[in-house]
Design goal:
- The protein is an alpha/beta fold and 361 residues long.
- Strands 3-2-1-4-5 form a five-stranded mixed beta sheet, with helices on both faces. A five-stranded mixed beta sheet has the order 8-7-6-9-10.
- The longest helix has 27 residues.
- The two termini are 25 Å apart.
- The structure holds 5'-O-[(R)-(carboxyoxy)(hydroxy)phosphoryl]adenosine and zinc ion.
- The site of zinc ion has 5 residues, from helix 7.
């Protein structure tokens, strides 16, 4: 079964084709992050305007892979979007309907509804946060990768959300913990801005911190680790922003590399600590990381080393960085495993969806 996934919840415009929920046939992502770098963060209207521009060419490129070779050569297919759609052998369409920016979500949702209407193919609405988890099922190329087994404890760390959930099986998600205020990605983005680093802040801090960590073995404990001793699985990241603000106000920004390493360490340490404690409590078969922040090298390394150091039986899954950040392959995968088509007339964008909203019984 081939599903066309469409994703436009934030500043990416993405379309992908995925076969049987796992094998990536095509994966196209157009980002407008350069525009947001100029404004130091996302201006929602700017993001949506770019998505209106990108959506058709991005979907066209994604479906082009499925059209047979002879037809590909015809100029109709080079130019005709609807003809390509009608000739593509997709079985269903999947689209992010929330959470996200309303203007951005609408671009993808309306495009998907139109495609469902003209192709008469089913349309599956997908919760973006649940979809992030499915990065752990995806593979490209010929060789399959190991499939995560249930029950799975899942950490979703993105720009807008930080959630820890238990997945007993597909379509069954229970909330275990999450952030009380800012998301982990938001903490990276906001503190990066305070240091004068570009948007998106996560990769910028990671790169800057890397330069420091290469030569430095000392302790990194300048900033607080809120809630680390509390016996729950919650986080709080808004205090970090204040701590960095106060520190730079008092001391200036003399050593950006060290400060970046300190910020990264403060975020990574609390994420790892609570995740390890949750693994010990729930003893899941698999631990699945996902979301943009899961692309962070330090976080990936620390999770690996703690799991092996403590000899935990849980198998750790971390997707390749390109499937951690926003893409449409995860949307198509989630749709396959939770297959619940809805008549296109009934689908609306829901900007405030929670991770448990879509599939919890
Ligand atoms: O999942 P995602 O692409 O979009 C949302 O659903 O929010 O996550 C974006 C977030 C941003 O906050 C970005 O700074 C962060 O992920 N991020 C990273 C890294 N790559 C992206 N944070 C830390 N280290 C990275 N390498
Ligand atoms: Zn995301």
């Amino acid at each position: 079964m081939k599903i066309l996934g469409i994703e436009t919840s934030c500043d990416e415009t993405a379309a992908a084709l995925v076969e049987d929920g796992r094998k990536i046939v095509s994966n196209v992502v157009a980002s407008s992050s350069q525009i947001h770098a100029q404004t130091g963060g996302i201006v929602p209207e700017n993001a949506a305007r770019k998505q209106v521009e990108y959506i058709t060419p991005v979907i066209k490129e994604a479906i082009f892979e499925t059209i047979d070779k002879k037809q590909k050569k015809s100029s109709h297919h080079k130019n005709g979007f609807f003809l390509s759609l009608l000739n593509s052998n997709i079985d269903a369409i999947a689209v992010t309907y929330g959470p996200g920016l309303i203007g951005s979500l609408l671009v993808g949702v309306e495009a998907a509804k139109t495609i469902s209407y003209i192709t008469c193919k089913p349309l599956i609405p997908v919760n973006h946060l649940v979809a992030h988890i499915y990065a752990n099922w995806l593979f490209d190329g010929q060789k399959s990768i190991e499939e995560p087994q249930f029950p799975a404890l899942c950490l979703v760390v993105s720009g807008g959300h930080t959630d820890l959930v238990i997945m007993k099986k597909h379509n069954n998600i229970k909330w275990v913990g999450g952030t009380r205020d800012d998301a982990a990605g938001e903490a990276f983005d906001k503190t990066a801005r305070l240091l004068g680093l570009p948007y998106p802040g996560g990769p910028a801090i990671a790169k800057t911190a890397d330069n420091y960590l290469k030569n430095q073995r000392g302790k990194l404990d300048l900033f607080p680790r809120p809630m680390i001793d509390r016996k729950n699985f919650d986080w709080s990241f808004s205090g970090l922003k204040t701590a960095v603000f106060n520190y730079t106000k008092e001391n200036g920004i003399k050593d950006t590399k060290r400060l970046a390493a300190e910020i990264q360490e403060a975020i990574v340490e609390v994420l790892v600590e609570k995740s390890i404690r949750a693994i010990k409590k729930y003893q899941p078969v698999s631990f699945l990381m996902s979301g943009g922040v899961a692309a962070n090298k330090r976080l990936r390394e620390k999770m690996h080393s703690r799991i092996s150091k403590e000899k935990l039986q849980t198998k750790l899954f971390i997707p390749s960085p390109k499937y951690c950040t926003d893409n449409a392959a995860v949307i198509a995968s989630a749709a396959y495993f939770n297959n619940a088509p809805i008549p296109w007339q009934k689908i609306t964008a829901k900007p405030n969806l929670e991770i448990t909203d879509a599939y919890t019984k």
